[in-house]
Design brief:
Blueprint lengths: L5 E7 L6 H17 L8 E6 L6 H11 L3 E6 L5 H12 L5 E4 L10 H10 L4 E6 L7 H16 L8 E8 H7 L9 H8 L3 E6 L13 H15 L2 H30 L7 H33 L6 E4 H6 L1
Helix pairs in contact: 5-8
C-alpha cells in the first residue's frame, strides 16, 4: 500500500507574530512523516489566509518560496475561522488522500498527527483530536468551554466533547461532505453527520506560542448560537413546550381569578398584574428572538451566496 498524500490545512488570521515560529514545526513534522514512510513525499502544508490585515499573507508567500512543502491560498476578505477552514479543506480534497486541520498558534500538540495517521492506516476515515484536560486554560476559559459543549449536547447538536477543529479527514469523507450546501456552518457538529468509521486521539494542549487569541467570549457565544441554530430545532420545540406550559398556567389563573371574583375575595392591586405582565412579556420577547434567529438563518440560506472567495494562490505565483 502506497503511503497517503497528506495536506495539513491551517487557517490564519492576523498571525504575523506566531506564524514564523510555528511554520517550521509543521514542516519538520511533514518531513518526519515522509522519512518514516507514513505519508507521500508530495505531502504539503496549506495555509489559508482569512483576509488578514497584517503581513500574514506576505509571510505565507515567502514560506512558499522556501520549501515545496509550503503552499497557501488567500480569501478575498475575512470570512471567519469556519469558512476559512472549509475553503482549505475543499481546496485540498482533490489533491490528497487525507487532510489534517490544525490552528497555527502552536497550542495543539502536532505530535498527535503521527497517531492520527496511524489510525487512518488502521481504517479510520475521521480522527478527532480531543484534549485530555484543560489545565492550561484559565478558570473562566475552562468553565465557559465546558458549558459550551454541555449546552450543545443538550440542544441536540452531536459533537465530540473537548474537540475543536483538530482532526484528520479522508478525501472520501470530504467528497461526501462537499454535498453539504448550507451557508451557516459549524464543522465540529457537521462532520459527525457524515458518518464513516471514526475514532479519537487524545493530546495535551499547550499555551499559545505568541500573539493573542482570536476567539474571545463574544465569538465563542456566536459560535454556540450558530452551531445550535444550524444543526438543531430543539430551541423551537422548547419554546413550544413553554407555550403549552404557560397556557395551562394562565388558564388555571383565569379560573382562580373568576372564582375569587364570585367569592368576593379580590383585593385591588397593580403589583401582581405588573409582575405577571412583565414576566410573560419577557417570555414572548425571548421566544420571538429565537424564532427570529432561525428566520435569519433561512434568509441567509436562500440567498445561496458563496461561503468564501479565493483571491490568490501561491502556486499561481509559482507558475509565473
Amino acid at each position: 500500500m502506497e503511503p497517503p498524500r497528506l495536506i495539513i490545512v491551517i487557517p490564519c488570521y492576523n498571525e504575523e507574530q506566531v506564524l514564523p515560529m510555528t511554520a517550521p514545526l509543521f514542516l519538520s513534522k511533514i518531513e518526519e512523516l515522509i522519512g518514516l514512510n507514513k505519508v507521500d513525499a508530495s505531502s504539503r502544508i496549506l495555509f489559508v489566509n482569512d483576509g488578514s490585515l497584517d503581513s500574514t499573507w506576505d509571510i505565507i508567500q515567502t514560506l512558499s518560496g522556501q520549501s515545496p512543502h509550503y503552499s497557501g491560498i488567500s480569501l478575498s476578505c475575512n470570512r471567519g475561522h469556519q469558512n476559512a477552514l472549509l475553503a482549505g479543506l475543499m481546496e485540498a480534497r482533490e489533491f490528497c488522500d487525507i487532510t489534517i486541520s490544525i490552528d497555527c498558534d502552536g497550542q495543539d500538540d502536532i505530535n498527535a498527527i503521527n497517531q492520527m495517521v496511524d489510525e487512518y492506516l488502521s481504517g479510520a476515515e475521521i480522527v478527532y483530536g480531543v484534549r485530555d484536560n484543560r489545565d492550561s486554560d484559565s478558570f473562566f476559559k475552562r468553565s465557559s468551554a465546558q458549558s459550551f459543549y454541555k449546552l450543545m449536547h443538550r440542544m441536540g447538536v452531536k459533537t465530540i466533547y473537548n474537540h475543536a477543529d483538530y482532526r484528520l479527514v479522508s478525501s472520501r469523507v470530504l467528497k461526501e461532505f462537499s454535498h453539504f450546501k448550507e451557508v451557516n456552518i459549524f464543522l465540529r457538529g457537521m462532520f459527525p453527520l457524515v458518518g464513516f468509521k471514526s475514532t479519537c486521539v487524545y493530546y495535551t494542549r499547550h499555551k499559545r506560542i505568541a500573539g493573542k487569541s482570536h476567539y474571545p467570549l463574544r465569538k465563542m457565544l456566536a459560535l454556540a448560537v450558530d452551531g445550535i441554530t444550524s444543526l438543531s430545532i430543539r430551541p423551537i420545540r422548547l419554546i413550544t413546550g413553554l407555550g403549552f406550559f404557560f397556557s395551562i398556567v394562565s388558564f388555571l389563573l383565569m379560573i382562580f381569578a373568576f372564582g375569587s371574583y364570585f367569592w368576593g375575595t379580590t383585593v385591588p392591586g397593580w403589583s401582581s398584574s405588573l409582575t405577571i405582565t412583565c414576566f410573560f412579556g419577557g417570555i414572548q420577547l425571548i421566544s420571538l428572538g429565537v424564532i427570529g434567529e432561525y428566520v435569519g438563518k433561512i434568509y441567509l440560506e436562500v440567498k445561496q451566496r458563496p461561503k468564501y472567495i479565493i483571491s490568490e494562490r501561491t502556486w499561481d505565483e509559482e507558475k509565473k
